[in-house]
User: Fold this.
Amino acid sequence: MISKDLLKGTLKTIVLKLLEENDRMYGYEITREVERLTEGKVQLSWGALYPALHKLESDHLITSEEESIGKRVRKYYRLTESGTSAAKEKVREFIDFVTIMGRVLDTNPNLNLA
Amino acid sequence: MADLTDREIEILNREIDKQGLTYTQLQNELLDHLCCDIETKMDEGVEFLKAFEELRSRLENRRIQEIQEETLLLINQKYRMMKKFMYILGTIAPSLLIIGAIFKLQHWPGASVFIVLGSFLLGAVYLPVFAMVSMRDTRKKEKRVNKPLYVVGVITGFIFITGVLFKIMHWPGAGVALLFSVLLTVAVFIPILVIHALKDKENQVQSFSILIFVLAFMAVNIMVFALKASKNVLHSMVISAKENMMTSQMVESANTLFLEIANQNDQLSPDRLDQANFIHEKTAALDNYLQEIMVDILLATHEDNHMAIAEDGSIDLSKTNYLDVHRSTELVIFGNEVTSGKGEALLKSLDTHRELLLAQAGPELDVIISEMLDLSSEHPEEIPWLVETFRQTPMIAAIISLSNLQFKLQFLEGEVLKELL
Assistant:
């Protein structure tokens, strides 16, 4: 399991990257997708995920649309134009970060992000 | 994938309600999330009730309210910053204006910097930010935002503040801006505000006080127009002082010419000619002393006024400024702890000169001399002439009095010369 402290700063990057690849997603779908990609090593708590989603929305990086499914409402998110470029920017920034950290911490991470 | 029944969804919904969630958007999302979570578990073969129980124990720990607060905090960040900014500006802008007003009143340098900066912050920054914050507040209460009210309010306020700024700085176009803002207020803003107040019964007190403030501001606006009148008064005082200077110079030239011709005339008695020349000298000396006092007053008023003084000591009043200052008049005439004033010496010289003229002139002219150089005040026992003429007297008024004295001296010299020769 990856610690929450490490995840905190990268949550937005993860969300943006996933939305870039998947057109539109809802909250639960995002947590499942992250779990699947990391083979269960990263579990996003909804306590962290939803505040982040709302923040991204208020910053106009993502938009949302609601769909009724029976008695409940499902909220789908998708990237805006500025969100798309923000996603690229964030991913690039993160790769830089990991590279630099690798140097600082003298490890040789086997990166497979690009 | 297992689908939850309506009843099961209702159970989950009630659970979320119980946690005290009020932000509808988040509520719907959490419900969907929990439903999906349980459905996945049911796919794995867990009973609904068992999955629900497990979820509930997790809910207690997660403290849903905290998540809601965090979400609201995150999405309201800009708004809270804007509000803070508004409060800070709301304190700084009027402070700058007040400091600028004090500087202006005291004629200290830098007044305009404060006034321009304060007005800019108030009109171009505070007003729009206030409108944005206020609009957001209204929207939050889930009420309709009266956009025209805000837009017209901000535009009118901006034009008004610009107009006042231009007026204070004596920049052109102030009158048009002020007039335009009054028209906008009366014809557009007040009607919109009144209609708004009639519709929105809840905030009528607020709307009413805004209306009162707007009306009070209009009164200030009109008073600013009145400032123009006092400027006109100062302007006509300048003209009057200029005329005094011009006529006394003309009479002086006439006297000089008259005396020159007389000096070449052998038939006149040398005694009388000596007397005439003596009076001409004395008059010129006193005239110069008056001129010196005027120059002193101008320079004591503001150093910029040296531009108005030519090398020969003559004064071009159209280049003077700070016409309404009276400290400088008092400083030159009455002095202060450090320097003594020139008033007493002036009074003595004028008295001596009057006696000199009276000794030379015949009885008919004596009446005119006594009357023109009468240095008694309207209330001679209470207030001496010097105090009446120069205490609390704006600089330009002192210049008028002094140049008027110059004219009288030259005029009387002329009369005495004519009588003597």
Observations:
- Residues 76-226 of chain B form one domain.
- The radius of gyration of chain B is 40 Å.
